[in-house]
Amino acid sequence: MTAMVGRHRRVLVWDIPTRVFHWLLVTATVSAFVTGYVLPQWWLGAHRWAGYTILVLLAFRFVWAAFGSEYSRLGSFTYSPKETFGHLRGVLMLSPRHYIGHNPAGAAMIFALAAVLCGLVVTGLLTEGGEEKIGPLAGIASYAVGDTAKTIHLILVWTICLMVAGHLGGVVIESWLTRENLVAAMITGYKVVPASTHLPRHRRPHWGAALASCAALIGGGALILVLLGRMPPRGVPPGPVNATYLRTCGICHAPYHPSLLPAASWQAVLSQLDNHFGMDNSKLPAAALVEIAGYLATHSAEAWDTEAGVRFRIASESEPRRITSMPAWRSIHAAVPAFWFARASVGSKSRCVACHRDAASGRFGDSKISVPMGERDQEPRGESRPTPKYPGLRP
Ligand code: HEC
Ligand code: HEC
Q1: pLDDT tens digits for range 47-63
Q2: 252 vs 27, 98, 319, CA distance in Å?
Q3: CA 67 to CA 232: how far, in whole Å?
Q4: How far apart are CA 138 and CA 236, in angstroms?
Q5: Residues near ligand 2 with C-beta < 6 Å?
Q6: Distance from C-alpha of 195 to C-alpha of 339, rounded to nearest angstrom
Q7: How far is Cα 296 from Cα 264, in angstroms, rounded to an integer?
Q8: Which of 227, 254, 273, 279 is nearest to 356 (CA)?
Q9: C-alpha separations of 162 from 18, 69, 116 in Å
Q10: Which atom of ligand 2 is nearest to the CA of 333?
């Protein structure tokens, strides 16, 4: 583990698993930031996998802190608050004490980074479970919990950005003060220390125990998530959309999912069928209409805990029958340029299915938005074009 170089010796500080872990975690965290924050909504699938990768890496590091080689072990980098403040004072006086493994400030940063990354994974799972009703926590998290988790997730994103900046700053400052290249050490694994340095007894890794613990922890965790994922999504009434409703109200337009209007609005739609947005629907079969009225009354927005169900409960005052007049619908689509709705491939605001591939299920998932390509002749000339933010969109 050590080799003499003149009056110095090279010590293998970071074993291969610790180094691979470190750089994979960097890659996964940067990917998660880019796919979740920089790229548009439809990258959320990749974002999800970056999150799972971080979870697996953290589980590995947890195990390696127990069974890894000397400087990867938890015991080699747990310091008392007194030692940590002593070290920070040393940094301020520009003469910090030299540590072979993690120094106290670095160790504190590692614990904080691990805690924040765990928080990001948990709030991420709660957000997709509560807001999108997908993933392992869909059966547990309500929309409100998902919404709160999303806010915390965003706060943690900025927290971790600041911490990464602090971590990089710490590496630069310590490398400069101790004249040792910490980045190179995390790549080669070696540090050069004076021959006189007292080295702790070098504990070797326990590969068998580490592999078995990793398999148990990651396998057990995956099993729990898979089992949780089999729970029916919370606040999503079971069963397909009523067949009579689909048949009767799907003659002229794709039938609107029952979660898109509150019960009172559905009632208003059904009581004014002779003047249905310029159409006379009063000849629709009476028996079917009775069944539809019962179905819509029990499956209206109030019955759903999905994004659409929760947000589309307050009807427009002037036209309570229209989804597209609702304050929430308008504010959600405020950034969507009017000419997109006018495209021949879309038709009108009311043709949800043209842009939402999952409109029939009432999900309106972020990753299922795909605005049809534009016909150039329909687009106003000279108007500034929006940046392509959605899949399938090439203005
Ligand atoms: C004869 C054709 C026809 C039938 C049948 C029909 N609709 Fe419609 N519906 C329309 C038209 C036309 C519009 C207006 C679409 C537009 O403005 O682009 C409309 C609009 C709507 C809207 C408002 C959409 C918006 O812009 O927010 C709702 C809600 C609706 N229909 C519900 C129903 C229900 C419920 C039934 C079954 C009882 C039904 N429709 C049956 C033709 C029909
Ligand atoms: C021209 C395409 C288009 C049409 C038509 C359209 N939408 Fe959208 N919708 C979008 C886009 C784009 C977004 C994303 C807006 C954003 O995040 O800025 C969106 C967002 C949404 C969301 C929020 C989804 C999320 O995860 O953030 C809901 C719910 C929704 N639309 C419902 C509807 C309903 C209901 C209809 C039909 C009455 C409809 N939309 C018609 C393009 C469309």
Answers
A1: 999 999 999 999 999 99
A2: 50, 77, 20
A3: 39
A4: 10
A5: 260, 307-308, 323-324, 332-333, 335-336, 340-341, 346, 349-352, 354-356, 364, 366, 369, 371, 390
A6: 74
A7: 10
A8: 254
A9: 23, 30, 11
A10: 15
Structure tokens at 72: 């990867």
Which of 384, 144, 142, 353 has its CA nearest to residue 255? 353
Which ligand ends up closest to the CA of 311?
Answer: 2
List the one residue out of 68, 90, 58, 94 whose CA is nearest residue 189: 68
Phi, psi of 328 (to 5 degrees): -65, -40
| Separation between Cα atoms, residue 236 and residue 234, nearest integer Å | 6
* Torsion on CA atoms 344, 346, 348, 354, rounded to nearest 10: 160
pLDDT digits (tens, 9 = 90+) for 202-230: 889 999 999 999 999 999 999 999 999 99
Q: In the numeric block, which tokens belong to residue 323?
A: 């989804």
Nearest to 348 by CA among 252, 242, 244: 252
Residue 137 Cα to ligand 1 middle (Å): 35
pLDDT band at 376 (very low <50, low <70, confident <90, very high): low
| Nearest residue (CA) to ligand 1, atom 26 | 350
Distance of CA 60 to the CA centre of its chain: 21
Measure the CA–CA gap between 286 and 268, rounded to whole angstroms. 16
State the distance from the centre of ligand 2 to the C-alpha of 265, rounded, in angstroms: 20
pLDDT tens, 291-337? 999 999 999 999 999 999 999 999 999 999 999 999 999 999 999 99
- Amino acid (one-letter) located at 119: G
Structural tokens at position 374: 């534009």
Atom of ligand 2 nearest to the CA of 311: 29
- Using the predicted structure, report yes or no on whether residue 366 has a pLDDT greater than 90: no
Are 256 and 265 in contact by the 8 Å Cβ rule? The answer is no
The beta-carbon contacts of 244-250 under 8 Å, at least 24 apart in sequence, are 244/288, 244/291, 244/292, 244/295, 245/291, 245/292, 245/295, 245/296, 247/288, 248/284, 248/285, 248/288, 248/289, 248/292, 249/292
